[in-house]
Design brief:
The protein is mostly helical and about 500 residues long. The chain has one domain. Helices cover about 70% and strands about 0% of the residues. It is built from 22 helices and two strands. A two-stranded antiparallel ribbon has the order 1-2. A hairpin with a 6-residue loop joins β1 and β2. The longest helix is centred in the N-terminal third of the chain and has 35 residues. The chain is globular. The protein starts with a helix and ends with a helix.
Length: about 500
């Protein structure tokens, strides 16, 4: 109890509060700009923490981290331009809601989902951290290979009307993920002698192209149809915020998404992108009206955001318990902990230190700040969608070019972004959905790399891989999910043809 009181006193320090507020605001700005990723922001911020007290430095970095996550979803909802890869899933229903005039509802649902998932993941951190971390340690290459296949099994959840076209798009995404050096032997594939392609296609570059540039091309083709100023007078209208009934109706979705996020976050090397799509896919699969998703469904935003935030909070479980980072962002945070002399590991949980308690309380306070910014600032933020295309899209074009160039200070990345924009536009024109393509790009390297590691460790014995208990369990779950996905796809086709 003494540790709790001392931790609350530390967090209540005006200096600490100011740092967290500044961190959240910086994160929101960074997360909303295409190309400026969360890990990049954390890496740039670490030198500024050198003279700070350890806990102040960690809380500032966590503030930037969680602010950036919400910022990425914010622009995905408003202008279909995810600032971070994890924000892409929130845009699947968030952007259609904006087009219908309900951007404020979508932003507030995103903010509420982030707070809900943070509370669930913090409870998991307190109660189940040692247990979940031990389970995570049982995961080897074969388990991650199976997890990647399970991720592909949710393709139907983001397929739209045609499962066949979704599978083709996912296959194209997997093909794109093979460009570059072989992960085991370094053999070049589809690089055509270009050293720019040796390390493959950057995920953020592809993401910016598929969503931001594709949207720009769409606006050029249908300038009147998609111009926010021509969509009617209800866009961003006052009084159209989230109501109590909608919040209550989202609680089941938020609970499932948060649990999925926590479970995925406890596994090192996964990340919020996978969990956001897994959560979204599960929500579509279990819905009585799956055909509504992708057209402006609030629970779609709730599922995506709760999955993403649940993962990022739970990624601290393996980090704090065993010093194993759950994703790129927590790997950077691990360096920050070491830099500031904070010893992480089992000792954090023996009650002899209040560092863990300060981090837990700090995460909750940070998410309250993010929630406040998203909920009460939504009226101001939604004004962006009232800007005419003639003014808004030149700005977005500049951000797209600057963001893709800034990733590796290479003009080649800009051309790749434009190429993916053209690919996305052509696919949409012929009815092929983009999310399965993105899933293929994300999951392809996970599947390939871990399969090669697993097969090399067993001397080429495939049966030894798939008969491992955890691997077999995940593969069975993937098969069940695929069967359910086919049924769901048929249900969507039948409902849309009626």
């Amino acid at each position: 109890m003494g540790n709790l009181f001392e931790a609350m006193q530390t967090i209540a320090d005006p200096y600490i509060i100011l740092l967290m507020v500044v961190g959240v605001l910086l994160g929101l700005i960074i997360g909303s700009l295409p190309g400026l990723t969360d890990p990049m922001a954390l890496g740039l911020a670490i030198p500024f923490t050198f003279g700070m007290e350890p806990i102040a430095a960690i809380l500032l970095l966590l503030a930037i981290h969680f602010g950036a996550l919400y910022g990425g979803s914010m622009t995905a909802i408003l202008i279909n331009t995810p600032g971070t890869p994890a924000g892409a899933a929130a845009g699947l229903d968030g952007f259609p809601l904006t087009q219908k005039g309900y951007s404020k509802k979508a932003l507030q649902m995103s903010a509420f989902s982030a707070l809900f998932a943070a509370v669930v993941s913090v409870i998991a951190l307190v109660l189940f951290a040692p247990l979940l971390a031990k389970v995570a340690l049982q995961f080897g290459p074969s388990e991650y290979f199976a997890l990647g296949l399970f991720g592909l099994s949710i393709v139907a959840g983001v397929a739209g009307k045609s499962l066949t076209k979704a599978l083709i798009a996912a296959t194209l995404g997997i093909f794109v993920s093979t460009i570059g050096a072989d992960p085991l032997f370094g053999v070049e594939r589809f690089t055509f002698g270009s050293y720019y392609l040796y390390e493959g296609i950057d995920l953020v570059t592809a993401l910016i192209g598929l969503f931001a540039v594709t949207e720009i091309f769409k606006r050029f083709q249908f300038p009147q149809q998609l111009d926010p100023s021509k969509l009617g007078g209800n866009l961003g209208r006052k009084g159209e915020g989230l109501n109590r009934k909608e919040v209550k109706g989202s609680l089941k979705t938020l609970s499932k998404g948060s649990v999925i996020g926590v479970l995925v976050g406890a596994l090192p090397g996964t990340g919020a992108v996978i969990s956001s799509f897994l959560s979204y896919g599960e929500e579509v699969r279990s819905s009585k009206k799956p055909e509504k998703y992708g057209k402006g469904e609030l629970n779609g935003v709730a599922a995506a955001e709760s999955g993403a935030i649940g993962t990022e909070s739970a990624a601290l479980i393996p980090l704090l318990t065993f010093g194993i980072p759950g994703d790129v962002a927590t790997a950077i945070l691990l360096g920050a902990f070491t830099l500031h002399g904070i010893q992480i590991g089992p000792d954090l949980f023996d009650g002899s230190t209040n560092v863990l308690m300060m981090i837990i309380i700090g995460i909750l306070v940070l998410e309250i700040f993010v929630f406040t910014a998203g909920w009460y600032g939504s009226s101001l933020i939604t004004k962006i969608v009232k800007i005419k295309n003639a003014y808004l899209f030149p700005i977005i074009c500049v951000l797209v070019v600057a963001g893709s160039f800034a990733l590796m200070t290479s003009l080649f990345n800009v051309w790749v972004t434009l190429a993916f924009g053209a690919i996305g536009f052509i696919l949409l024109k012929f009815g092929y959905p983009l999310p399965p393509l993105l899933l293929g790009i994300i999951l392809g390297p996970i599947i390939e790399h871990n399969y090669l590691l697993a097969i090399s460790s067993t001397g080429g014995n495939v049966m030894e891989i798939i008969t491992r208990p955890i691997t077999l369990g995940i593969l069975i779950a993937a098969v069940i999910m695929m069967i359910l996905s086919v049924k769901m796809s048929k249900k969507i086709r039948n409902s849309t043809s009626d």
